[in-house]
């Protein structure tokens, strides 16, 4: 199955896969899609540069992309310690009290505690762009909408396409007006940052609004060839998939991810919650004892981005080390209900494409 998007991105199949794992991203690209590496976990530009060197050597010459986070209307500059001073003491007390109640142990004395993931800061995201443009990336995506116009122009100057996520048709129009090349229409059921409109409604609205000016990728609730076919039927040029790659063999190569997979494999499609506790903006997460604690009476309201991330950063470190699936803190979409086994990326891609072809053939037979 090919769409014009394949020629635009230089890929074989109209499937773009977002992932925080370079191992997964490279495997998606090798399988004929476009692997997109999430950069937010990289506080240090040199670390990102080294990982992109690895991507260059392990994608088999196939194209890949990166995803950055450029929030626009929050306190974005300054050292992490300065931002940390803006966090109310009662929020810190709640986090520590909750972790103790959940039985999450303290970090070892010799393990460095991070004061937030700096990748959420605008200035650090810009450094991610600078690093990425030193590599043969094909796409830079911004998870929080349009990047600044100068960043879009910077990417275009390197012949790199720019994508932006949209939760409303008016967001998509603004993105394209700003120079964005590809719009990702991300529905309410998706993992991570999401809006209020479900994919079945959102995708055709976005296609009608900007489809004559830019390709539209459908995101949210896609984990089978039938769902990719549905995205194409709604007018999308391809699928943007994130959550589904969390249940792959390659994802296990990042520390702590095997425990995360245990939690994901046990979950059903109703076992997610949309909350601001992960970053300060509404994001769909796996429902666990950690998310339940934030929903109890007396829990504080989450802080705005990036303060919420700074607040819970150490908590996420402790949760990961605890190796307890019942307290995992992980963005994931409602498609988690289809994530029932761990398989290599190549096998997942092959099954997606086989079912996509079968679905289109079945529909063609109805005429």
Automatic annotation (TrEMBL):
Keywords: Flavoprotein, FMN, Monooxygenase, Oxidoreductase. Pfam families: NMO. The keyword Flavoprotein applies. One of its GO terms (molecular function) is nitronate monooxygenase activity. This is Nitronate monooxygenase. Gene3D superfamilies: Aldolase class I (3.20.20.70). It comes from Saccharopolyspora hirsuta. It comes from the Bacteria. PANTHER family: 2-NITROPROPANE DIOXYGENASE, MONOOXYGENASE RV1533-RELATED. SUPFAM superfamilies: Inosine monophosphate dehydrogenase (IMPDH). InterPro entries: Aldolase_TIM, NMO.
């Amino acid at each position: 199955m090919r769409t014009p998007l394949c020629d635009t991105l230089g890929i074989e199949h109209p499937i773009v896969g977002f992932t925080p794992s370079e191992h997964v991203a490279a495997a998606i690209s090798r399988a004929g899609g476009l692997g997109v590496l999430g950069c937010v976990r990289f506080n240090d530009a040199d670390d990102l540069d080294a990982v992109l060197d690895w991507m260059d050597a392990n994608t088999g010459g196939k194209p890949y992309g990166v995803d950055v986070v450029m929030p626009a209307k929050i306190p974005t500059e300054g050292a992490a310690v300065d931002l940390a001073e803006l966090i109310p003491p009662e929020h810190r007390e709640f986090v520590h009290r909750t972790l103790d109640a959940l039985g999450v142990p303290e970090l070892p004395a010799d393990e460095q505690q991070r004061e937030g993931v700096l990748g959420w800061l605008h200035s650090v995201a810009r450094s991610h762009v600078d690093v990425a443009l030193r590599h043969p990336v094909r796409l830079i995506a911004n998870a929080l909408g349009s990047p600044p116009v100068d960043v879009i122009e910077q990417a275009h100057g390197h012949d790199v396409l720019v994508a932006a996520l949209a939760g409303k048709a008016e967001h998509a129009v603004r993105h394209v007006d700003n120079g964005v090349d590809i719009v990702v229409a991300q529905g309410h059921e998706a993992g991570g940052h999401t809006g209020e409109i479900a994919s079945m409604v959102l995708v055709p609205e976005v296609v009608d609004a900007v489809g004559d000016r830019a390709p539209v990728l459908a995101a949210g609730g896609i984990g089978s060839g039938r769902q990719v076919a549905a995205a194409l039927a709604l007018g999308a040029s391809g699928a943007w998939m994130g959550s589904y790659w969390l249940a792959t063999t390659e994802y296990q190569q990042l520390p702590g991810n095997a425990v995360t997979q245990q939690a994901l494999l046990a979950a059903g499609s109703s076992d997610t919650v949309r909350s601001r506790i992960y970053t300060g903006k509404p994001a769909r997460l796996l429902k666990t004892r950690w998310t339940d604690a934030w929903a109890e009476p007396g829990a504080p309201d989450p802080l705005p981005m990036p303060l919420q991330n700074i607040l819970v950063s150490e908590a996420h470190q402790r949760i990961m080390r605890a190796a307890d699936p019942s307290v995992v803190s992980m963005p994931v979409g409602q498609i988690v209900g289809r994530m029932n086994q761990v398989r290599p990326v190549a096998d997942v891609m092959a099954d997606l494409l086989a079912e996509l072809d079968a679905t289109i053939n079945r529909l063609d037979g109805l005429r």
